[in-house]
Amino acid sequence: MWNRPLCVKISVCLSTLGKGMGKRLGYARVSTDDQRLDLQRDALTRAGCADIYEEKVSGKSADRPALDYCLRALSAGDTLVVWRLDRLGRSLPDLVRIVGELEQRGVGFESVTERIETGSATGKLTFHLFSALAEFERNLIRERTQAGLAAARARGRKGGRKPALDAKQVREIKALLRDPDIQVADVAKRYGVSRATIYKHVGAVRPERGASPMI
Fold first, then answer.
1. Pairing state of beta strands 108-111 and 51-56?
2. Active-site residues (predicted)?
3. Which of 206 and 131 is assigned the larger pLDDT?
4. Which of 195, 171, 168, 200 has its CA nearest to residue 183?
5. CB neighbourhood size of 209 (10 A)
6. Helix axes 92-104, 121-154, angle to 10 degrees
7. Residue 75 reports pLDDT greater than 90
8. CA distance 138 to 127
9. Which of 35, 127, 140, 152 maximizes the CB count within 10 A of its CB?
């Protein structure tokens, strides 16, 4: 079992560094214990990568140490190579952000499977399109969030988590607790909440039998 991300750098002796004069560094990632890195490693080696940084960690995880090491090792004129786009970015905006930062540093990017190279005119055009799609996605999320909040305000609700008990349930609980034979714990179980929630929403109620009075 993998208890933490595996961070490995594999040095591969090559007679040439491939395209361009800079280094070609590979990054490979798998997200589950039953996946193997062999396929990505072989593809990146064939693509001329001098070094390959590998790790086993979920793509949703923000903590990817091997990727951090790889990005720090890149200099202007170098190229970052991945087997497939989804090995690098956690989402489309994340992918665009990383590649954009590489471009600002003068570092190229290449995806073997999609045959994308930001060093070419076609590759740059592709990533301009990705950037536009990422911005479109952000705008959609923003609009949906704002529309949802506006609809909630129109129904008399503010944004935030839905209360554990609504007004009707609070009235029912108050009525139940007027009966001295009904225990707070039983009421809490019936409504699927804790005793603390009952006290929070109902206010000061009588103590259960045998308990110290509430102050």
1. unpaired
2. 31 (o-(5'-phospho-dna)-serine intermediate)
3. 131
4. 195
5. 8
6. 130
7. yes
8. 16
9. 127
Q: What is the pLDDT of residue 82?
A: 94
Measured CA to CA, the distance from residue 146 to residue 128 in angstroms comes to 27
Higher pLDDT, 139 or 76: 76
Question: HEC string of 139-167?
Answer: HHHHHHHHHHHHHHHHCCCCCCCCCCCCH
Structural domains of the chain, count: 2
User: Where in the sequence is the domain holding 178, given as residue range(s)?
Assistant: 167-202
For residue 213, is it within any domain?
Answer: no
Contact assessment for residue 76 and residue 106, using Cβ atoms and an 8 Å cutoff: yes
**Full-model pTM:** 0.56
The domain boundary residue, chosen from 54, 88, 119: 119
Residues known to be catalytic:
31
Q: Which two tokens stand for residue 182?
A: 């009904």
Burial class (CB in 10 A: 0-12, 13-18, 19+), 80: buried
The residue among 130, 83, 84 whose CA lies nearest residue 103 is 130
Q: Has residue 93 got a pLDDT over 90?
A: no
Do both 103 and 19 map to the same domain?
yes
**Mean of the per-residue pLDDT values for the chain?**
78
**For the segment 4-27, what is each residue's pLDDT rounded down to a tens digit?**
445 455 444 343 344 456 899 999
Identify whether the C-beta of residue 25 lies closer than 8 Å to the C-beta of residue 66. Answer: no
Encode 124-148: b = buried (16+ Cβ within 10 Å), e = exposed.
eebbeebbeebeeeeeeeeeeeeee
